[in-house]
Amino acid sequence: MKREPVSGSSSPLDLLRERANSSVVPIKWEGHRLYLLDQRILPHKEIWLEYSSARGVAQAIRDMVVRGAPAIGITAAFGMVLAAFELSDSDRTTFIERWLGETEFMLQARPTAINLKWAIERLKEKIDRHPELETDGLAILLEKEALSIWSEDIQANLDIGSYGQALLPDVGKVLTHCNAGSLATGGYGTALGVIRAAVSRGKKIEVVANETRPWLQGARLTAWELIRDGIPVTLIVDGAAGFLMQRGEIGAVVVGADRIAGNGDVANKIGTYAIAELARANGIPFYVAAPVSTIDPEICSGDQIPIEERGAREVITLAGKEIAAHGVSVENPVFDITPHRLVSAIITDAGVLVPPYDSAIHACL
Predict the structure, then answer these.
(1) For the whole model, what pTM was predicted?
(2) Engineering a disulfide at 179: which of 46, 48, 222, 359 sits with its beta carbon 3.0 to 4.6 angstroms away?
């Protein structure tokens, strides 16, 4: 069966080019195929990988081809669209049963990032609201919804940038950890979106990027994005952040988030909690930038957020070479929890949330 592209399928990229003048995107959707920019080998090579099945997309998420909570959510949505088209010759009952089975596999790809679950639940609700549609119609419906999720994420990033830029100094250095830029989202970025918006409004911002071991997202991805944009960026080892704060060189910290609990506790890349403590000790504001979709109101506190643990090889090797003593034990948690008491503000697409976070979060949902 020949399937024509959905009308307006280029709208997410059109929105990005129109509103943000940005060329960096981690995702492409063309001809009912998903293409992901392989972030494991940036910045040295720019290679796009093609995916035609939900299982392949889930493996790409697990293998870190794509990363960052919003980007994972968008990618998972398109993975489920691929599953829908693959099942569209089935009867409706078989379609739904098998499609729901694929969602369970997708949900296991990365357990901490709530956007993955949020995107899949949104697609499920779309199916539930259209009992009149046959399988072909359901597949097209889900494709449109995935494109909407992507477009809405870009708009959310632009709004986050607009709200958050006002919090940054007119002149100074801003520290960030990991990569919360275009590559971690549908485009533009959350934490880097705040920085991009500040620079676009004439603020003289320099970025200090933690290298972010063990995947070096700061060294490889954040630095690459900012250099492309012409924004000054200095790379430091993770352990140097406190020293620079102590010397008065950092004016603010802004990071992204993979999940935010109902009380404002934040799950983000491992090392974020230490930076937040250092910021508090040195009187530096610590901001979290994330869309409302990253908030999980069903979780009361960070203690309930599942923390992904990955294998030892990521820690004991660097660029494929072993760097650690043979036989050493390794613990490799991917995320940590920053208590809400250390967060100066949460910058969302619904506005800037300030303490008390439980009531502020309730009001914005």
Answers:
(1) 0.92
(2) 222
